[in-house]
Amino acid sequence: WLLLGVMGDPIAHSKSPVMHQAALAELGLQGAYVPLHIRPKGLADAISAVRSLHFRGVNVTIPHKVEVMKYLDEVDEGAAQIGAVNTIVNDNGRLKGYNTDGIGYVRSLKDEACPDLSGKRIAVLGAGGAARAIVYALIAEQPAVISILNRTEAKARELAEEWSKLADIRGFGEEASCEVLAAADVVINTTSVGMHPNIGDVPVNPDFIREGAVVSDLIYNPLKTSLLRESERRQCTVHGGLGMFVNQGAYAFEFWTGLDAPVTAMREAVLNSFR
Ligand code: ATR
């Protein structure tokens, strides 16, 4: 019996339970994946309960991804660099934290839009927590350059500086949008601009993106943001955020079970839950 769950505040809206229940069912595994409404002051007790109730693993979401790290026995190198954990594996009471957001995103981008990222010029919009996970995972793909564009230029520069030994990473403010986007093979929006209910908003002027580029948005509500719609009109290949959500879950499922995650069934379950 495999006991799994997700801790967050709020948690009622989470699509993780429906997605992981579908994965368990697809593989014929006995178990349950439960939503756990954990407030910040209850996080330490909730992590103790992972051990005492013999959860095999949990996902951790907003607002606990950073705070949870101090309660774990071990944190994976990638998660430590990113500074956030979204997946915990319980090996007989020993808890290890991982971050599957970035690697899930990159797997989705490669599977669905851009199979080879090596040598590519990548523009990342935003320099917050989501950008950290994605930039870190992109470094392993050996792109030619990663340019981080952010409303607050200092944050983009700080992030670029932090990993400057690992890859050619540069930070820019909004005034450099035109120049950075014109040179990019792949453009990735990590900001929340364009998310429901503000579906008309775009994080950058889409006219700056060169025709034929790959344009990707982490947002999956709506499934196709205004940025992606505009980019499609410019003959760009577009990639929405649903695949990141599915693949961060798929990696977590693989860490817990040692099995290949049934990605298609997981994606279908999430899509059906929107209908
Ligand atoms: P997340 O974990 O989702 O990345 P975050 O750490 O709060 O959330 O980061 C949000 C990112 O989106 C930041 O880069 C933020 O820009 P600032 O650093 O200038 O705050 C960016 N962002 C959010 N709302 C934005 C808006 N309306 N216009 C432009 N950028 C925005």
Automatic annotation (TrEMBL):
Residues 241-271 form the SDH C-terminal domain. Its EC number is 1.1.1.25. PANTHER family: BIFUNCTIONAL 3-DEHYDROQUINATE DEHYDRATASE_SHIKIMATE DEHYDROGENASE, CHLOROPLASTIC, SHIKIMATE DEHYDROGENASE. NADP(+) binds at E77, G126, A127, G128, G129, A130, N150, R151, T152, E153, A154, K155, L218, G241. The keyword Coiled coil does not apply. The gene is aroE. GO terms for molecular function: shikimate 3-dehydrogenase (NADP+) activity. Involved in the biosynthesis of the chorismate, which leads to the biosynthesis of aromatic amino acids. Catalyzes the reversible NADPH linked reduction of 3-dehydroshikimate (DHSA) to yield shikimate (SA). Residues 6-88 form the Shikimate dehydrogenase substrate binding N-terminal domain. The active site is at K65. It comes from Paenibacillus campinasensis. This is Shikimate dehydrogenase (NADP(+)). InterPro entries: Aminoacid_DH-like_N_sf, NAD(P)-bd_dom_sf, SDH_C, Shikimate_DH, Shikimate_DH-bd_N, Shikimate_DH_fam, Shikm_DH/Glu-tRNA_Rdtase. Keywords: Amino-acid biosynthesis, Aromatic amino acid biosynthesis, NADP, Oxidoreductase.
